[in-house]
Each structure stands twice: as structure tokens, then as C-alpha cells.
Amino acid sequence: MKTVFSGIQPSGALHVGNYVGAIHNWVQMQDQYRCIYCVVDYHAITQDYEVKQMSARVREMALDILALGVDPEKAILFVQSAVPEHTELAWIFGAVTGHGDLERMTQFKDKSASQPDNVNAGLFFYPVPQAADILLYKAELVPVGADQVQHLELARRVARSFNHRWGKVFPECEAKLTATPKVLGLDGKAKMSKSLGNHIPLTSIEDRPLRKLLGRMVTDEKRVTREDPGDPDVCNVFSFHKIFSTADDQAWVRQGCTTAGIGCVDCKGRLAERMVDHFAGYRERRAELLAHPGRVDEILAAGAEKARAIAQRTLAEVRQKLGLWRSR
Ligand code: TRP
Q1: For the chain, what are the domain ranges?
Q2: Which atom of ligand 1 is nearest to the CA of 40?
Q3: Which residue lies with its CA nearest to atom 3 of ligand 1?
Q4: Which are the catalytic amino acids?
Q5: Closest CA to 158 of 178, 185, 133, 180
Q6: pLDDT of the residue at 182
Q7: Ligand 1 within 6 A of 41 CB?
Q8: Does domain 206-278 have CATH number 3.40.50.2300?
Q9: Cβ contacts of 126 within 8 Å, gap of 6 or more
Q10: What is the pLDDT of residue 17?
């Protein structure tokens, strides 16, 4: 059985973009593969953050992941810093990572531009611990959003050059994208992200708050009045219908929008209904977890124990290959 690994930064509660772009696949894959999922707090420290909020963010994210259907009976869910082997392997991988390869990473360029006062070396090194996360478990499939494809390419190169220099230990890993790996935000322009404030938090998916949020969603900008016909193919609301609505709903939108038979409010209302239905199970599981404080922490602790056992085996093998003192 192939091993799957994925990680997500502890940015707090999840939003629709996280779900559609990646976590949906996490849930799907747990029935077919050995899945290991991780909240990556070591990665998060490369960006500015509030120390006092860190553990709450980690817990909030884990809660949402579980509420979305990641099942601790089927998959391992843990927090990166509970398995310190991640950092040891990252250091070792640094020795087989090309400096030039890291310089090409577009996420490094984007993040440096977005925090010019904190262009730290960790931000530059970031894809190396990411490769370590994956390869510590010898994972072959990595469900991620489209923005991570370049990092996975790098992880593959790292595995190859490790195997070439010290002997074969690691498999080649590949990205597994969802059907919609990139979701735009309410502005209809940028990728949905919490830091841009154009996101739909999963916790807002209840009838009234959701209708209110969707009210802000940019539609076909050429459709100025209710009487103008619109073009669903350039409308971000329609791309959400494609994800959450039935074929019949989509046909209803296409027909109504292109003939000005329905307005954007009608179209958004139907979408709100479909999304509320889609996330009914999520809301239920979330309420259940919230009613049992301590449950999330227990799941994370049990997950870390399982993950650590695997990680220690890999590192023992790695130290041996490298001829490190500790492996004698
Ligand atoms: N870099 C990923 C992101 O920003 C998070 C991440 C860290 C990750 N380690 C990983 C994703 C390992 C997949 C596998 O979203």
C-alpha cells in the first residue's frame, strides 16, 4: 500500500479554498492508502506570528481537519514539532539540495516580497524541511494545492540526489492535485487566502452568514444591472456551482444568467443552499468535537506517537548510510 503524506500550515480555522484545493483529497485518500497528515508548526515560524496564538491555531486547524472527515482510525494526524526527527532529516537534506534550486522557488520570492522586513534564511530553506516531512515516511503521493507543485519537484530532486550520494533510501514522490487545485477568493482575482481576507471560512457556512459573504463575491463584471445577461464562464460564483451544485443547478444557472432570467442574488442563493448541504456533516462533527474538550489533543498525541515510530526507523537507516557517529 502506498503511503500518502501532506502538511498544512496552522493558520487557524480552514476555509473553502483549503478544503477544495487539498483537504478534500486528504479525506478521499484515507480509504485507499496509508495516510499521514501533519500540521506544520515548524514551517509556520518563518512568517511573522503571534506566539500566544500558535497552539490555539494548531488545535483549531486539527479540529477542522477532523470535522471535515479525516478519521484518526484510518489516518495518522499529528503536529510536526511533536516529531523532532523532521528537523534532523531537514538538516541532512540541506547537504543534497542545490542552492540554485532553492533560488528558483516562486513561493520564496512571493513570501519575501510580502514580508520584506523578515526575509529569513528559514523562508529560503522552507522546501527542504517540506521534503523531509514527506520522505521521513517514504511517502509517494502528496495531496496539495497547485502552488505546491514546484516544492514537490524539488523534493523529488532531493530524494534522487540523496539516493545517488548515500545509497537508495527514498522513493520518488508526486503531487496529487484535486479536481480544482486553485480556488479564487471572493474578489474573483486572487487565490483564496486568509491573509488576503478574500476567503470563506468553513465556520461561516450557515445560511445567513454565508449569504452575506457571497453577497460580496464578484460576479461577471460586464453584468451591471439585473437586466443585463451574464456569462457564467467568467463568473467566479459559477465556478463554485461547478464544485458544489448538481448538473441541473448548473444548467439552471447557465440558462437563467445568459438570458437575464435570474439575477446574481438568485444564483448566489442557490449556491448558498448547496454549500450548506455539502458541509452538514462537517458542522455536525465539529459540534461533536467541541463538546468534548481534550479529544483533539488526544488524537494528536496518539498520532504523533505512531508517526514518531516510523520516523525513527527512517532516521536510523539514514544515519547509517551517512556514516554518522551516532549510527555506530
Ligand atoms: N508548504 C506547504 C504549504 O505551504 C505545507 C507543507 C509543509 C507541506 N510540509 C508539507 C505540504 C509536506 C505537503 C507535504 O501549503
Answers
A1: 3-183+293-322, 206-278
A2: 7
A3: 8
A4: 111, 191, 194
A5: 133
A6: 87
A7: no
A8: no
A9: 43, 46, 105, 107, 108
A10: 95
